[in-house]
Write a structure and sequence with these properties.
5 helices, alpha/beta, Nucleotidyltransferase, domain 5, 180 residues, 7 strands, single chain
Length: 180
């Protein structure tokens, strides 16, 4: 497994998969983080068509994520904590998709870490109430990208990966909120 953290002057290296969960679009961003330097390995979105049966959509998400885990072998996955809005059906469907995403990570052996949108904004921009565009632009700058990745879910996923890179050694986040 590629995931390793060593202390102080020793190497700190991680391959991190950031995930912005959804069922129509699952944003992903994979970075290599070593000695406070970032390198983008891949980013994009897993998409499922609206007319497809929901169980098949979940199956597509699972298979595509398993492919990413097999190809890049991330030792850590950072995923956004669910935010429940007023649309309960959408919230339930996103929760089911998120469960499939967590299952793919668990089956790959990656450690799973959850972050709230406030934590991501604080980590990437330095301000927990930052606007989405500010987070996207700072993500672009930190990763040396020529443009903000599209769709937005992809930029959000890269921000989640950055958040974990920044937070992984920090006691501020309670030594990390890993899902057991």
């Amino acid at each position: 497994m590629v995931y390793c953290i060593k202390y102080r002057s020793e190497c700190k290296k991680m391959v991190i998969l950031g995930i912005d969960p959804g069922y129509a679009i699952v944003g992903y961003g994979i970075i290599d983080y070593e000695n406070s330097r970032y390198r983008v390995l891949d980013f994009g979105a897993v998409t499922t068509p609206a007319g497809m049966d929901f169980p098949r959509r979940l199956g597509c998400i699972y298979e595509d994520l398993r492919y990413l885990f097999d190809k890049y072998k991330p030792g850590a996955m950072s995923v956004e904590k669910l935010f429940f809005n007023t649309n309960k059906k959408t919230a339930v469907d996103v929760a089911q998709a998120r469960g499939v995403i967590l299952l793919a990570a668990q089956n790959s052996g990656a450690k799973i870490f959850e972050y709230t949108p406030l934590q991501v904004k604080q980590s990437v921009v330095g301000y927990g109430r930052a606007e989405k565009k500010q987070v996207q632009e700072m993500t672009r700058q930190l990763l040396g990208l020529s443009a903000v990745p599209k769709p937005d879910d992809t930029a959000d996923a890269l921000a989640l990966a950055l958040c974990h890179a920044h937070s992984s050694g920090s006691l501020i986040y309670g030594g990390l909120s890993s899902i057991k």
